[in-house]
Amino acid sequence: MQSALRILYPTQCVSCDALVEGDTGLCGKCWSDTPFITGAVCGACGAPLIGDVDPEETAYCEACHASPRPWLHGRAATLYSGNARRLVLALKHGDRTDLVPALSQWMARAAAPLLQPDTIIAPIPLHWSRMLKRRYNQSALFALELKPYVNAIVLPDLLRRTKPTTSLEGLSRDERFDLLRGAITIKPKYADEIQGKRVLIADDVMTTGATLTAATEALQTSRAREVCVLTLARVTKDA
Ligand SMILES: [Zn+2]
Ligand SMILES: [Zn+2]
User: Fold this and answer.
1) Does 84 reside within a domain?
2) C-alpha of residue 68 to centroid of ligand 2, in Å
3) Ligand showing the shortest atom-to-Cα distance for residue 208
4) 192 band by pLDDT with thresholds 50, 70 and 90
5) Which comes out higher in pLDDT, residue 4 or 150?
6) 20 and 115: one domain?
7) Ligand nearest to the CA of residue 87, numbered in listed order
8) Residue 15 has pLDDT above 80, yes or no
9) Is 239 domain-assigned?
10) Which residues surround ligand 2, an ion (CB under 5 A)?
11) What is the CATH number of the domain that holds 68?
12) Is the pTM of this model over 0.85?
């Protein structure tokens, strides 16, 4: 039925005005300029792995080897480059919330190995001062849109930022970790609800993992059973 509707009403590429091919929401040209992650991936951040990887074993990228992650599993849909980077920036700074359904579908696909029915999805929060300016939290929009794919409970306000963080751009890895330590806590009213539960944190971009680490530690302090992370785009050295 859906494909029949698509033939009758072909949709436009989310990235340009061309007609969509396939089910990614992109035209052929934009699809080939979007660095989707496929094949063997790092079990902690979802970055692609090169070389021989035993599909039965969890392997890690160089960055996650050097800086072991406090969460259990992680996936990302794309690398943060090319058209994926353009779309993230359009969503964050260009009010393109219409991109959310297509981008969430990519995330749901990448997250398939992590999804279990009793998962709670929680977005990385914006500090209220930034929320006032932007009016929406792109990670919360992803979390809400992921709900039907994963049949999960979404708690958009489970996590909160206790201090505003200015732009992290230009900061070293260690500076980012220092700045974000303790910057995210869970809302006290959810403390009982997440005890012993499996939580999937959703975010738009993973750079060093400092923000995801702060969120994971907050969930672990509240005794979540398992924490996994899902991002739209992963920044890697070579991307
Ligand atoms: Zn296009
Ligand atoms: Zn990794």
Assistant:
1) yes
2) 9
3) 2
4) very high
5) 150
6) no
7) 1
8) yes
9) no
10) 42, 44-45, 47, 61, 64
11) 3.40.50
12) yes
